[in-house]
Amino acid sequence: MIPIRDTTPSESVPVVIYGLIALNTLVFLVTLGLSPGEVTQFVYRYGLVPAKFTVPEISAWFSLPSLLFSTVSYMFLHGGLWHFVGNMWFLYIFGDNVENYFGSLRFVGFYFLSGLASALLHFMLNPMSNVPTIGASGSIAGVMGAYFLLYPRSKILTLIPIIIIPWFVEIPAFLFLGFWFLMQFFNAAGGGSSGIAWWAHVGGFVAGMVMVKMSPRIPATGAGARLKKVTARKRTPQLQVIHPIPLGQTPDLSGEIVISSLEALTGTHKIVNIPWGFYKRLYRVQVPAGVKQGTKLRLGGMGRVNGVTERGDMYLTVVIKNVI
């Protein structure tokens, strides 16, 4: 299952998420320029290696600042392209809403505390391990744990490839993330692949939930509120899911497409997923400049089939948010 997007749009631009993705990308590109031997040394120095803290013969080679720095730097290292892409994609999908909830400044602390909690659990269960643990998975698991509590009824538009046919389905967030967490837990408890720190994922997820429960006790900062105003979104999501409704006894269907005030003025285009019956189809919709609230856009031939060949139309009602 590949998450494409969630159906709960964030109210602000996730500047911290974009910054974290940029920093992870920079570090990944640096490692691509290293030789295999240099990569091994780089990962051992900046990855999380429990033995560096517990085995005197190994810890003697590292200074205290270097040891402490590795508890943070390990979050920005990845073991390959798909490890990197997968982590950044999940951070992009689930991170914006969590950042919006905490505020950008508090989210920075939340993200790193999730990674530290993940590292701590891994360290406690593998105190003598000489194998480096790397990746942003622990911190991202914390983001997913927070999302699990904050937006359980949100829908995750998910791509399920069936042979060569892409099938899009909306899965409630509590099911998608709950299934993900159970997979991590059972793999950890069952001694899954030694190349993956399953317990670190579990620790990050639980830490994310705990911090959500504790967040009301932490006062918000005025700086965070001001930053949220600056980063307020000016556009609605590019990909939208339309839930069609039949128009009486006709083969026509109706739905809503959501755009912002800016998009209403300048015009825009959206990619819409229109599920009807067993069909789930993607279409590009052009919204003309100067469109008004309640305007109906006609998508010819995208309604229900009536009889053998006749097909109705789809009428999308324009809903403008943040109206000027």
Automatic annotation (TrEMBL):
Residue span(s) of domain Peptidase S54 rhomboid: 69-212
> How the protein sits in the membrane?
Multi-pass membrane protein
Cell location: Membrane
Please provide the record's keywords in A-Z order.
Membrane, Transmembrane, Transmembrane helix
Gene Ontology MF annotations: serine-type endopeptidase activity; unfolded protein binding
Keyword rRNA processing in annotation:
no
List all membrane-crossing ranges: 15-34, 76-95, 107-125, 131-150, 157-183, 195-212
Using the UniProt record, give the first listed, main subcellular location.
Answer: membrane
Q: Which GO terms describe its cellular component?
A: membrane
Any idea where the Chaperone DnaJ C-terminal domain is? 257-320
Any single GO BP term = protein folding
Full protein name: Rhomboid family intramembrane serine protease
Q: Which organism is it from?
A: Desulforapulum autotrophicum (strain ATCC 43914 / DSM 3382 / VKM B-1955 / HRM2)
